[in-house]
Write a structure and sequence with these properties.
Shape: globular
Mean pLDDT: 96
CATH class of the largest domain: Alpha Beta
Low-confidence stretches: none
Oligomer: single chain
Bound molecules: pyridoxal-5'-phosphate
Strand content: 5-15%
Largest sheet: 7 strands, mixed
Order of helices and strands: HEHHEHEHEHEHEEEHHHEEHEEEH
Number of strands: 13
Number of domains: 2
Number of helices: 12
Helix content: 25-40%
Strand order of the largest sheet: 2-8-7-6-5-3-4
CATH architecture of the largest domain: 3-Layer(aba) Sandwich
């Protein structure tokens, strides 16, 4: 039988990493043992107390039932406390917080809640590819705003204002920015909120990297008046090494949370109770957790700099977040060429920046989710072939 896929999937290919991981698995099957420095999936362990809590709670016979669509109250209260402590943002745990099955899920929910055919949404180029695909799946049109090294990977708001924004309903924004590692100032967020108010655009700030190699964490919701025009996504994936647990959160004004819940509650159900209790424990962990995490990433980053220098790449040391973003040498056509060459010659996978948009064409992104030992091995392999 031949099945015709729905029109909404017409522009949406299988996710690049999903395809690449299949290719790498094929190489490994043939004995290659590829070192994957592509994906930002933390290899370090979640906090022990979180694992212990999960184990204890799963033994409880009452743990296995359906859960509330908007999460258990204990998790929402823990999120409210964490936001107050870490970002100085006050949130009502009853109405302004929505636990999610990962922030990727939240990106889709937000698009499905607010966008439809005929609408436009601004997306960063380069940026996390899910913004484009979620906008497309909602039926709306993604409109890229270019980021570049020349503008320190920030949107030029003055230039944006000159464009026809009449159909733009929503803007995806993400600082610390993935893939460039740029970090926002409070002043930038103030200007962005002003812009959003002027043009009646909902700002959706995706904030999963603020704890990684970043001294000053900022939530857009800490800007006065922001709740009127902005919402924020956050995640347990990177901050607590819990990527596979699928736990995230949406924060914002009560109207926004109930609008998104209207879609989400028709789409999925509350997460497993032990997951939510364990996640609540993660949020009350002390400052040593963040210090130790960043110590590990800091040492790895030094090795990544070494590897990038071997490949003649140029990088900025002011970057924050879980990756290093680097400009490739002019001798390559684009970063796909460099990435393919390093994969075939050294059996090391690094992400070509073009997958994040055309503005990333001459850049590569290396993940810090590999041990120092693995990075040493990658360096050795690359040295052997250059
Ligand atoms: C910018 C950005 N947003 C969201 C996500 C998704 O995170 P989660 O695991 O919470 O779905 C990622 C994951 O790599 C990301 O890089």
């Amino acid at each position: 039988m031949q099945m015709k896929i729905a029109d909404r999937l017409q522009h949406t290919e299988e996710y690049y990493f999903s395809k690449k991981l299949t290719e790498i698995a094929e190489l490994n099957k043939n004995g290659a043992v590829v070192i994957n420095l592509g994906i930002g999936s933390p290899d370090l362990q979640p906090p022990t107390v979180v694992i212990d809590t999960l184990i204890a709670e799963i033994q409880n016979p009452a743990s296995h039932s359906y859960q509330k669509y908007n999460g258990i109250p204990e998790l929402r209260s823990a999120i409210a406390k964490w936001y107050l402590q870490e970002y100085a943002v006050e949130l009502d745990p009853e109405k302004e917080i929505l636990p999610l099955i990962g922030s990727k899920e939240g990106i889709m929910h937000v698009c499905m809640t607010y966008l439809q055919t005929g609408d436009e949404a601004l997306v960063p180029n380069p940026g996390y590819p899910t913004y484009v695909s979620a906008v497309q799946l909602s039926g709306a049109t993604p409109v890229a705003y270019d980021l570049s090294a020349a503008n320190k990977w920030f949107p030029d708001l003055e230039q944006l204002k000159q464009r026809d924004l009449s159909k733009v309903k929503l803007m995806w924004i993400n600082y610390p920015h993935m893939p460039s590692g740029a970090k926002a100032s409070r002043q930038f967020f103030v200007e962005l909120i002003e812009f959003a108010r002027e043009h009646e655009i909902l700002i959706c700030h995706d904030n999963p990297y603020s704890f990684i190699l970043n001294d000053e964490r900022i939530s857009i919701l800490s800007i006065p008046g922001s709740k009127e025009v902005a919402i924020e996504l956050n995640s347990f994936s990177k901050t607590f090494n819990m990527a596979g647990w699928r736990l995230g959160m949406l924060l914002g004004a009560k109207e926004r949370i109930s609008e998104v819940l209207r879609f989400k509650s028709n789409m999925d159900s509350g997460m497993l109770y032990p997951l939510q209790v364990a996640a609540s424990r993660a949020l009350s962990i002390g400052p040593e957790w963040y210090q130790n995490l960043n110590k590990a990433y800091g040492s790895r980053r030094e090795k990544v700099y070494e590897l990038l220098s071997l490949l003649n790449c140029k990088y900025d040391k002011d970057q924050v977040g879980m990756f290093v973003w680097a400009r490739i040498a002019d001798s390559y056509k684009d970063a796909y060429q460099l990435s393919d060459q390093v994969l075939s010659d050294a059996r090391v996978f690094i992400t070509p920046g073009g997958i994040f948009g055309s503005q990333g064409k001459n850049y590569i992104r290396i993940s810090l989710c590999a041990s120092e030992q693995t990075l040493d091995e990658a360096i050795k392999r690359i040295k052997a072939v250059i």
